[in-house]
Amino acid sequence: MKKLLLVAALALPSLAAAQPAADPAATLRDQAMRGDTLAWELVEGLTTEVGPRQAGTEAERRARDWAVRRLTELGFANVHVETFEMPVWMRGEERAEIISPFPQPLILTALGNSAATPAGGLEAEVIGFQSVDELRAAPDALVRGKIVFINHAMRPTQDGSGYGQFGAPRRAGPTLASRKGAAAIVVRSIGTDYHRNGHTGVQAFGEGARPIPAAALTIPDAEQLQRILSRAGDVPVRMRLTLTPRNIGRRQSGNVVAEVPGTDPSAGVIIIGGHLDSWDLGTGAIDNAAGVAITTAAAHRIMQAGRPRRTIRVVLFGAEEVGGGGGPTHFRVNSPAGNAVMVGESDFGADRVWRVEFNFAQGNAALADRIAALLAPLGITRGGDPANAGADLNEWVRAGTAAVDLNQDGTRYFDYHHTPDDTLDKIDPAQLRQNVAAWTAVLSVLANAPERIEGIAPTPRPAR
Amino acid sequence: MKKLLLVAALALPSLAAAQPAADPAATLRDQAMRGDTLAWELVEGLTTEVGPRQAGTEAERRARDWAVRRLTELGFANVHVETFEMPVWMRGEERAEIISPFPQPLILTALGNSAATPAGGLEAEVIGFQSVDELRAAPDALVRGKIVFINHAMRPTQDGSGYGQFGAPRRAGPTLASRKGAAAIVVRSIGTDYHRNGHTGVQAFGEGARPIPAAALTIPDAEQLQRILSRAGDVPVRMRLTLTPRNIGRRQSGNVVAEVPGTDPSAGVIIIGGHLDSWDLGTGAIDNAAGVAITTAAAHRIMQAGRPRRTIRVVLFGAEEVGGGGGPTHFRVNSPAGNAVMVGESDFGADRVWRVEFNFAQGNAALADRIAALLAPLGITRGGDPANAGADLNEWVRAGTAAVDLNQDGTRYFDYHHTPDDTLDKIDPAQLRQNVAAWTAVLSVLANAPERIEGIAPTPRPAR
Questions:
Q1: Which residue, of A319, A452, B54, B117, has the fewest CB within 10 Å?
Q2: pTM
Q3: How many helices (H) and strands (E) does chain A have?
Q4: Cβ proximity of A173 and A135 under 8 Å
Q5: Nearest residue in B to A51, CA atom
């Protein structure tokens, strides 16, 4: 009995050294990991009480009202809205059918900024390509007047890097097809699932490219169209396509801003956040009620623990999905006077954080080490740097502000991304808590760090 | 060296006894398991070249034409169509939205025989119930003029037995809601997935129940509506529902019949098959191009192996989904003169067979044992009997004909059942081959068995 007690007494200090339980950042991290309920409450609230909230619509305005009310109730300071105007494109009807040789309906969804077909649809022959490069290489005469179909073979990756490569049919395809005189374009959805839900997303017609109808077939429908083309052989495959989206002119969008005031105004501000708008098809649970909830819940934990040295600003951006009006607005309104010293966005779903990356100046190496050590018990490894923050905060990084990226597991992200399937049931409460714990640890260290925080000039990477 | 050869020589006969490779049924079984490609070719052909094929429509007629052509090309004898007439209900538009307090669209799909709303939709308060029993217990005054919502908690089971219990909201809910004066009913889809695809299915308004609009919310939408009701508290939740289905009158449907002629007309006929029609939402890959393909491919293997003693008749039934016109038609046309001695249907997807059940007379116990022994190497266990065949052949069983059920793994069947997601990509080629191997073994034994084959009076079970 005595011996056991002695062993225990001897063991304690070394245990404490291995697991720095005395570190307030570690304590806050562990409390979040064990018991955070705020993030779930927020993600459920936003997706249920507002639901889909496309930028520039009445629904996005209701999301701002919801956010202002909730942030105020939670005790945040300086809760306000930064408004801006933006052009709004609205989805209409969307239908497709094979007319011959194998008549049947296909399911698709219009891409952002798609032109409309005539109300009764347009009918044309389908010409299939396996890649954007194959379309690029095709003679214009072969494409003219036809409905271009681009297939691809996107597969899931943990870091989501396939989105850059496989996103080309959506981003470059419509402009290329238009320049070649195509009547319309349908691409295989940029996604990794096998459900009859199309993946929408923004695309912009390049200079001189007349807008044409542009849509994404669900992945089962893209594979069906590929089989139809194969089995038809030399017989032309004809499709009728009906899309009736409209450009409704300029409308108001906005960012919702809230702060945890710091004790030292000279120490600079930390900006974190997610985006409040979503695509219209789902309720925007993973994209991006989750980011809104994770960063708000983490900032709230710091606030509850006592006033930090640095002010933490939570920004819930408007209009990220349709091209990102909110990020530039916040940068314009707040820079250079905003004196931000660190930025970070959560915008890649709600699955667990698996990697941390920094873009800290050399003098902040110890600070990065300290954060990485705090994240390791959450199963988070250290990446190769540099961080680039999310789409909404990238301008700050380009201006030299420090950033931390907490990379989330993206293996199933593109199963649901920009589809009707982006709903609350796709979020795992335990993984959501791990996100809150990770951001809480990062904020706890950075908001209270005695040293100056400085970034480095970033290496450009494609925005997500 | 000599010793080794001696051991090998001694071992061979006992190996042969353990694995009866000399049994032609086992050889055919193993050839199917290793190399069947016909079933995949048929399931791909039907789902691609015809696609959705609702009973009584032009698409179902094209499916019959396709089947007649393919069965003839494959060398079957006596290929013909048995036609019959049936009333046809056609889906129209289907939309729902919450008007207040949390405005947003919901995704649903009309149930078979649903009434239409006015063209502009109907608007009413939603009243939620957790079960049909809870609705039954509610005072009529509480339900009158409202949109009834019935939730439930169906979970996947290997044998699919949840469909009987959890199907009640779809089968009994609309009639019950109508009798209580409800304006409409929306039920949680009878399914086990989390995708924004509604599960349709047939229901019939009982005597004296005025048809009302009836639809199935997708499972994420049903959970969303439940959360909306919870968060609304005492505030009424109002929904606008638009369904525009039509009854288009009587149309022609039909069964496609093909035979492998036997050598002994007095030995009776074996009837197997699946159903050719599908719901309109998907391409009917698992329900039931798979059953069509599996039974056709198995019968084709027997035909290729030489003329069997008994005639094998493959029947591809029409109109199974909407109430089963094809099964009764075939029974009426062929009974009692048809002298069927055994019936079996494949209509539970394309996943592996895990269990066999019989309803053989006592005198055929050895025959059942022989079949079970041939199926064991495919991982198929023996169930508790009696078999009841599928919905289309159940009348034969009730009349005393022997039946074999090859139960398929239904764990993921209700993820896709009656949804747009019932597409070719849901079929695993290896599991499809195991189905062909199992049916080939069953047919090989029964088509050539020297003994008489007789059934027993069955125990009634709910039809699937």
A1: A452
A2: 0.93
A3: 16, 16
A4: yes
A5: B104
**What CATH class has A21-89+249-448?**
alpha beta
Residues B344-392 pLDDT 10s: 999 999 999 999 999 999 999 999 999 999 999 999 999 988 898 888 9
Q: Is the Cβ pair B197, A195 closer than 8 Å?
A: yes
Give pLDDT tens digits for B403-457.
999 999 999 999 999 999 999 999 999 999 999 999 999 999 999 999 999 998 6
A92-244 domain in CATH 3.40.50.410?
no
Q: Do A420 and B107 touch (CB under 8 A)?
A: yes
Longest dimension (CA), chain B: 92
In sign, the C-alpha dihedral spanning A456, A457, A459, A464 is positive
Chain A positions touching B194 (Cβ under 8 A) are 421, 423, 425-426
Interface pTM, i.e. ipTM: 0.92
CB-based contact A355:A293 (threshold 8 Å): no
pLDDT of residue B335: 77
Q: What is the pLDDT of residue B385?
A: 81
- Tell me where in chain B the CATH 3.50.30.30 domain(s) lie: 92-244
* Residues B393, B343: Cα–Cα separation, whole Å: 7
Residue with tokens 């009730």: B398
Q: How far is Cα A318 from Cα A316, in angstroms, rounded to an integer?
A: 7
| Sheet (strand A147-150) strand order | A104-106, A94-100, A238-243, A122-129, A147-150, A184-188, A214-217, A108-110
> H helices then E strands: how many in chain B?
16, 16
**Segments of chain B assigned to CATH 3.40.630.10:** 21-89+249-448
**B206: Cβ contacts below 8 Å, ≥ 6 apart:** B175, B179
Task: Please tell me the least confidently modeled range out of A162-176, A252-266, B12-26.
Answer: B12-26
pLDDT at A6 over 70: no
What one-letter code names the amino acid at B196? R
Specify the amino acid at residue B133: D
CA atoms within 13 A on the CB side of A384: 2
End-to-end CA distance of chain B: 60
Residues of chain B contacting residue A194, judged by C-beta atoms under 8 Å apart: 421, 423, 425-426
C-alpha closest to that of A389 among A327, A358, A345, A342 = A345
